[in-house]
Amino acid sequence: MLTVGVYGATGQVGGVMRSVLQSRRFPLDSLRLFASARSAGRTVDGVVVEDVATADHRGVDVALFSMGASASREYGPKVAAAGAIVVDNSSAWRMDPGCPLVVPEVNAAALDSIPRGIVANPNCTTMVCMPVLAPLHAEAGLTRIVASTYQAVSGAGLSGTAELDEQIKAVGDKATALAFDGTSVGFPPGSVFPGPIAFNVLPHAGSFDGDETTEEIKFRNESRKILGIPDLAVSVTCVRVPVYTGHSLTLNVSFRDAITPERALDLLRGAPGVEVVDVPTPLASAGGDTCLVGRVRADRSDPNGTGLTMFVSGDNLRKGAALNAVQIAEALLERGIVAA
């Protein structure tokens, strides 16, 4: 009897986790849902939500966590100690050497050692490009990434989408005035983003840590760990854009060995979790399970002549979070780490 627990079941990503488990027909016998005391007692999908703080976690085989870093640090080890493999979507365990950081299409073998009983899910921005970069690295040896991201407001949670929605509605038919004078239209005060996000872009995702943001630091560190390149050179600027769902990246990547755009496209067409398209967009990626990649061409600024430029889009709530967590659970079954 395989029991799966969804922790943070009533939240944005938790809801997508429930949907993905169902759509992929994950072979569970029992589903348990957990949330904070505020949501405990509600019935969701016919299941009564349990209070994570007071519940008996014994009997859960796979625990899919999406409760935020603080809650994951508090409850993740407790649930693991009760016998579950915890798959955590927060930043709490990603850089812990005792917790594998896994994208199943890239490094599923890392699941063969889970000393803490916790597997980490990468940041949703990092996730979008890992299935794309992995086959190129295997072919030519990735040495450098220069990236600019275009991150949807849903990456900041339900409050982020609500803030964009509120600002768009407040501007209404005055939106065209923004084309001539960005100060002439009043926006309601925001609390999630450091400036108006509607009709705007903000080169600020996460919080500042020195001269970088936490999102930029996550991208660098997680890319190195997932791809197994500890000295990978990474420069990234993370930008929040007025898109509801779907993170995108412009990637300028350099390699040890020469690789042509034609060869890169051949590899990408056969890569799991990747779909080659002419023009990737976040709108096209929303609701999908693949990372869209296109505009693949030579980076003519690369001094060694081995660089490529490309654009990638992916659904940050599905592959960027919920889907990858379920795929990790599937890989645990396939590798015999969890028994059905």
What does this protein structure show overall?
The protein is an alpha/beta fold and 340 residues long. Helix content is 31%, strand content 21%. It has nine helices and 16 strands. The strands form four sheets. Strands 5-2-1-6-7-8 form a six-stranded parallel sheet, with helices on both faces. The protein has a six-stranded mixed sheet with strand order 12-9-13-16-15-14. A two-stranded antiparallel sheet has the order 3-4. Helix 1 (12-23) packs across helix 9 and helix 4 runs parallel beside helix 6. The model has no long low-confidence stretch (mean pLDDT 94).
- Measured distance between first and last alpha carbons: 6 Å
Counting helices, strands and paired strands, the structural category is alpha/beta
Percent strand: 15-25%
- The tally of helices reads 9
Which consecutive residue ranges, at least 5 long each, have pLDDT under 50? none
How many extended strands?
A: 16
The SSE string, one letter per element, is EHEEEEEHEHEHEHEEHEEHEHEEH
Radius of gyration: 20 Å
The strands making up the biggest β-sheet line up spatially as 5-2-1-6-7-8
Helix content: 25-40%
